[in-house]
Amino acid sequence: MATVAEQWVLVEMVQALYEAPAYHLILEGILILWIIRLLFSKTYKLQERSDLTVKEKEELIEEWQPEPLVPPVSKDHPALNYNIVSGPPSHNIVVNGKECINFASFNFLGLLDNPRLKAAALASLKKCGVGTCGPRGFYGTFDVHLDLEDRLAKFMKTEEAIIYSYGFATIASAIPAYSKRGDIVFVDKAACFAIQKGLQASRSDIKLFNHNDMDDLQRLLKEQEIEDQKNPRKARVTRRFIVVEGLYMNTGTICPLPELVKLKYRYKARIFLEESLSFGVLGEHGRGVTEHFGIDIDDIDLISANMENSLASIGGFCCGRSFVIDHQRLSGQGYCFSASLPPLLAAAAIEALNIMEENPVHGQRHRVNSGALPGERREVSPSSESTDPVTSEEAAEGSMHSAEEALESGHLEENQHHHLPSV
């Protein structure tokens, strides 16, 4: 029975072959030939090679000259010739053996040489040693770290704070901890170099608005709102951030925080506020631009600042709601992979906070002194009017030339803030 069925199928195939159109048979024949060719042909061809003799190889090696890793730099370049500071950089400073009036320091409150900070650091040094030799998550958390985080949170009137061992890495680690590929970040064109590096690490979609121009920012937010309406499914999973500085390193101007908060709620964005220069300086008690404008601290999603200015220590901190800060303990690269802040520096920062709370007049005196400077000292140089992002090479070169000019005149002053990449 099976043999009859097979013969019947074969008969049908032959009949179908006779009934098929000619072009169909030709096409099938070409395909069959092409398959046979692919099966029996080689997938690659051996390239002809000519073996070199040992002598020819040695000659080629001797002739080869590698390209320099970096372009040639003159030995007289300012970056290769350091200005050596002798003693603490207080009101007067000795640079290269020459005594100068210090206008260049970020020691805003004059606490760098404070006896109380020295005593606190020395006591911690005797108790805990010099460093930690481990990140916070791997035997690098000391009791003084937890005390400092608690003090910073209470001082800033937030739920929680987290400290980093390097000021530059604070905001540069915080931004990519939250903003990822596909998210949108609206950032001021005058943002400091640390923010720029954090944005690069986040790989987010960056939209720059003109410096302190709320109309331009609102235009970008409206355009994004229209784009979201075209693709609501994508808009639901896209996060939007506004990144600004309280007091801008590049221009010396204060951000219009009240207008930013209004735009935040209107267009459903999150605000990241970098306060490295405004912390300890602005506000009645030195809490920064939020206190300066009387803005509720809960209106800001994340506040970042370093402790290398007003607190006369090292490192930085972020503060905000607990669920926001705790995320950095798992995702902040500078927190997870760097050795924690040396205990002696954390103790010094705590003592600096004590002084700020006991004597808020420190920040008030700083603001009065700034206003008392002659007009030509208060004005930002014309070159700092530019809001274009500054590269690290431009920053280093500019700061060196400024320092050289200041030393020649006998006044060490920083009149081009945008050239300093330290924040």
TrEMBL record:
Where in this chain does the record put each Aminotransferase class I/classII large domain? Answer: 99-358
Q: From start to end residue, where is composition biased (Polar residues)?
A: 381-390
Identify the EC number(s): 2.3.1.50
Q: Which reaction does it catalyse?
A: L-serine + hexadecanoyl-CoA + H(+) = 3-oxosphinganine + CO2 + CoA; tetradecanoyl-CoA + L-serine + H(+) = 3-oxohexadecasphinganine + CO2 + CoA; octadecanoyl-CoA + L-serine + H(+) = 3-oxoeicosasphinganine + CO2 + CoA; dodecanoyl-CoA + L-serine + H(+) = 3-oxotetradecasphinganine + CO2 + CoA
Instruction: From the record, give the transmembrane residue ranges.
Output: 20-40, 161-179
Q: List where this protein forms a coiled coil.
A: none
Cofactors demanded by this protein: pyridoxal 5'-phosphate
Q: Where is this region: Disordered?
A: 361-423
Q: In terms of domain of life, where is this protein from?
A: Eukaryota
The UniProt function text for this chain reads: Component of the serine palmitoyltransferase multisubunit enzyme (SPT) that catalyzes the initial and rate-limiting step in sphingolipid biosynthesis by condensing L-serine and activated acyl-CoA (most commonly palmitoyl-CoA) to form long-chain bases. The SPT complex is also composed of SPTLC2 or SPTLC3 and SPTSSA or SPTSSB. Within this complex, the heterodimer with SPTLC2 or SPTLC3 forms the catalytic core. The composition of the serine palmitoyltransferase (SPT) complex determines the substrate preference.
Which family does the similarity line name?
Belongs to the class-II pyridoxal-phosphate-dependent aminotransferase family.
| Record's protein name | Serine palmitoyltransferase 1
Q: Which organism is it from?
A: Balaenoptera acutorostrata (Common minke whale)
What does the organism's lineage look like at the top? Eukaryota, Metazoa, Chordata, Craniata, Vertebrata
Q: Report which gene this protein is encoded by.
A: LOC130708441
